[in-house]
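Quick one, T. Sequence first:
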Amino acid sequence: MPMLKGVEVVVLVTSPSPEEGEKIAKLVLERKLAACVNIIKNIKSFFWWQGKIEEAEETLLIMKTRLDVLPELTKSIRENHSYSVPEIIALPIVAGLEGYIKWLNKSICSRASSP
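Structure tokens:
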């Protein structure tokens, strides 16, 4: 696989339900803020919250996007997410199939051409 250094990222977002996850996935796709969103249902999360360890059943969204749209993606997620502090973590894509990376970039709206 070629090393494609660029601005492509994978964004991880958890949601409290599959329904909320699907709503957010469709929203970011319609706005062309992500090329693809995978949804993994029924994950068990353990985390620190307000000084104690909590656990929850959640849904994980895996979004493929670019770093230049991350601020708008984050804003869209926060406006439509029920958590006061949703997980929004971007990880760089350090390598990938060249055709997939090209497709990813073509699928996302160019911020330079936005009004």
